[in-house]
Amino acid sequence: MFEDVVAQVGRWSARWLESLSTRPVGVPVDAADVRAGVDDHLPDRGEPVDRVLSDLTRAWEPGLVASAGPRYFGFVTGGALPAAVGAEWLVTAADQNAATYVMSPAAAVIEDVAAAWVLDLLRLPDDAALGFVTGAQMANVTCLAAARRSLLAARGWDDGADGLAGAPVPTVLVGDQAHATLTQALRLLGLGSARAVRVAVDDQGRMRADALADRLDGVDGPVLVCAQAGNVATGACDPLDAIADLLSDRTESWLHVDGAFGLWAAAAPARQHLVAGAERADSWAVDAHKWLNVPYDCAMAVVRDPAALTGALTTSAAYLPLGDLDPSARTPENSRRARAVPVYAALRSLGRDGVADLVERCCALASQAALELGRHDRVRILNDVVLNQVLVRADGVDARDLAAAVQRDGTCWVGTTVWDGEPAVRFSVSNWSTTPADVTRSTTRILELLDAL
Ligand SMILES: *Cc1c(COP(=O)(O)O)cnc(C)c1O
Predict the structure, then answer these.
(1) Residues 82 and 445: beta-carbon distance below 8 Å
(2) How far is the CA of 275 from the centre of ligand 1 (A)?
(3) Has the keyword Transmembrane been applied to this entry (predicted)?
(4) Which of 27, 112, 160, 309 has the most CB atoms within 10 Å of its CB?
(5) pLDDT digits 0-9 by tens, 340-382
């Protein structure tokens, strides 16, 4: 029974994974067309497994995007390393509940090891607490929940018991280019998104330390500063050392770093300087499914003071006592998949050098793309390409039209953003399998399409 299922799924998966580098990347399809292929009749009687799976793989294929392939440069999208794909399957097959040590000692122990490796590679304090969550969105929520609890506890307020009404709520300061998920975290935690003080940024989208100093000047009570490592448009990182300096003589402060992809710069010796000072923060959000190239969904919430994290998140019930060993004491979830296992496998298959090389290679490929695109006389590269992001505009054409033409063509995939009030094309290199030839093939095609517009 299971042999057949695994063989069937294995055949489809191998074909799909092998085809990623050659198939059209993500040509636009009509949702109605995809829908037409999907059997939407809930059967009264169950159907044989092999038919369910073969219908599924046939029906969803038109709507699949080769976003894990080497020429998908949209958003900040990682692929999936072979070891991580394999480990992800093992997780599904073993179907462990990674909530507590008792439910799965295996999942808990591997999570501990993976956590230690991540802290080591990112050069974060080795006694910090780390929870594996679904994405940087939830990592931001998790870290800021710990921040909220810690800052309020210092004022004698128990937010867990008493909520926020009447609480001495901290002043929240965020860079004007903070990621939308950071704002969402503030909303979900009752800290308010509009209430947050927006700090001016420079031309690369970095929080300006002098502007932060000005904003902090008038603030007496507790402050929560949310910095960023890796702007989604430019890749630029906030000046973390200078920001930490500004907070160093404040007793009631918390520095959070949203480093969804940018914090991985810490793992590459030639890029480490971009995130210098990151280790001085109180909490860090970092994705695994972006630059580490494990399958969705996986990210890490790291908090310097373990008690702040577990204090904010531990739940306990008579039948489900939680201790420090229990993974779910460090995350908002209760039952959860063993999502640290693919991280463990990815890191083992790469090794320390391999992680550094992955980061460095993507950055070099981004520079290559900027160079090749920038040779065209109508193209302007809008950012300093310091990391893996390239921001592009072409004279005489709306960036959205250029991106749409690229998407229709299917050689590669790029998206858009608004930069300085105008549309711009974003080109992000975050995939382990992207080669210099992939970049050249993509930039050549983008420029041909530009000429044709
Ligand atoms: C991608 C990103 C996020 C959100 O991450 P998800 O994994 O999509 O939840 C948050 N912050 C930054 C800076 C990002 O680049």
Answers:
(1) no
(2) 17
(3) no
(4) 309
(5) 999 999 999 999 999 999 999 999 999 999 999 999 999 999 9
Give the model confidence (pLDDT) of 153-191 as tens digits: 999 999 999 999 999 999 999 999 999 999 999 999 999
Instruction: Confirm if 334 and 315 have CB atoms less than 8 A apart.
Output: yes
Using a 6 Å cutoff on CB, does residue 228 contact ligand 1?
Answer: yes
Q: Which of 232, 339, 430 is the pocket-test mutation for ligand 1 (most atoms within 8 Å of CB)?
A: 232
For residue 297, whether the previous peptide bond is cis, meaning omega lies within 30 degrees of 0, is yes
Q: Where are the alpha helices (DSSP H) in 38-135?
A: 49-60, 82-94, 105-121
Alpha carbon 59 to its chain centroid, in Å, reads: 29
Of 428, 405, 429, the closest CA to residue 417 belongs to 428
Ligand 1 neighbourhood includes 266 CB (under 6 angstroms): no
Under a CB-based contact definition with an 8 Å cutoff, are residues 135 and 287 in contact?
yes
- Tens digit of each residue's pLDDT (9 = 90 or more) over 387-402: 999 999 999 999 999 9
Q: Are 416 and 426 in contact (CB under 8 A)?
A: yes
Buried b (16+ CB within 10 A) or exposed e, 176-202: ebbbebbbebbebbebebeebbebebb
Has residue 316 got a pLDDT over 90?
no
- What's the CA gap between 284 and 303, in Å, rounded? 7
Which amino acid appears at position 276 of this protein? Answer: A
Identify each DSSP E strand in 295-388 by its residue range: 299-303, 379-381
Q: How many residues does the chain have?
A: 453
C-alpha closest to that of 159 among 205, 206, 191, 202: 191
> Residue 357 belongs to what H/E stretch?
helix 340-374
What does DSSP say about strands 299-303 and 415-419: parallel, antiparallel, or unpaired? Answer: unpaired
287 lines ligand 1 (CB under 6 A): yes
